[in-house]
Amino acid sequence: RASGQAARRYIDRRSVMSHTQAPQRKTYVAKASLEVFYTGGPCRLSHDGTMVAAACHEAVNIVEVGTGKVVHNLPGDTEPITALCWSRDGRRVFTASRSMRCSVWDATTGESVRTFKAHSTPVLYMGVDPTGTLLVTTSADRTARVWDIDKGFCTHAFRGHGGMVTVACFHPDARKLQLYTGSQDGEVRAWSLRERKCVGVLQAHQSSVTAIQVPMAADGGADKLITCARDRVVHEWNLKTMKRISTLPVHEAAEGLVCLDPAAAAGLIGKAAVRAAPDAIYFATAGEKGMIRVWRMGVVCL
């Protein structure tokens, strides 16, 4: 009898263990993974918004926005990247490093097309004109240069700033043939590509200019200029008179600014807010506080 009871207890224990046993482990295969593709410095979105070029140490990664996948790694020259930009059609990427070497890359293959030296000191900004045929580079040598993208030669060399030239912007209307530059000492200059000379000096900022935009979507926006700097204000200028129209405090050192068309602004702040002033200048700023703010020129943050 004792042996029978022991057998039953053993069977009961086995039954309990079988019901409480942990589920069988499964192995999984990674479908995708995210890797470090940005370590600080220049970062630019392609014009169609599908790709981003991001500095990663001394190299540049081409990343798909939708998936986060690194499509190409553009090798550097052991020096940090100081500026980069996309061509209008998204087929080329232009980069500059602290070694003063500028490179042109095929964005579809990741191969180098050519290299050149643009300035005697590091390049601080690069941008492409509305036609996609001209490249502007600005530098710590206090100059801005314009380059023929296809043939690779310098078409214009603009001198006159008293400080490092930190940013530039072509007028979106290619017929105007104008370039605008900002410098570390707060000065903004307008240059005529046709006449090859400075046609206006805009002085109001008290620190380094970080962004220049032409608000084409606003009423009369083609004749206006918006500038921001680290002095915590945004200025609106009349390009016909080269005089300041208004000033808007943004209460932080602005590191970037982009003008918004009414549709883009409505998507961020609501249709009702835009409907109240459909022809106004709307723009977004990014500053030292790490926030994106949307503004209407002349009023507080929306």
> What is the makeup of the main sheet?
4 strands, antiparallel
What is the helix fraction of residues, given as a range? 10-25%
Stretches with pLDDT under 50, minimum 5 residues: none
Distance between termini? 87 Å
Shape: globular
- Listing every helix as H and every strand as E from the N terminus to the C terminus, the arrangement reads HEEEEEEEEEEEEEEEEEEEEEHHEE
Structural class: mainly beta
pLDDT averaged residue by residue: 91
Rg of Cα set: 27 Å
Q: Output the number of helix runs.
A: 3
Q: Output the strand order for the largest sheet.
A: 1-2-3-4
Beta content comes to 35-45%
Instruction: Give me the count of strands.
Output: 23
Relevant terms:
302 residues, mainly beta, four-stranded antiparallel beta sheet, 3 helices, 11% helix, globular
Could you characterize what this model shows?
The termini are far apart. A hairpin with a 3-residue loop joins β18 and β19 (233-238). The strands form 6 sheets. This protein has a 4-stranded antiparallel β-sheet, with no helix packed on it. It has a 4-stranded antiparallel β-sheet with strand order 5-6-7-8, with no helix packed on it. A 4-stranded antiparallel β-sheet has the order 9-10-11-12, with no helix packed on it. The longest helix is centred in the N-terminal third of the chain and has 19 residues, at 2-20. It is built from 3 helices and 23 strands. It has helices spanning 2-20, 262-269, 271-275; strands at 43-45, 51-56, 59-64, 70-74, 81-86, 92-97, 101-106, 112-117, 123-128, 134-139, 143-148, 154-159, 165-170, 178-183, 187-192, 197-203, 209-213, 224-229, 233-238, 243-249, 254-260, 282-287, 292-296. The protein is mainly β and 302 residues long.
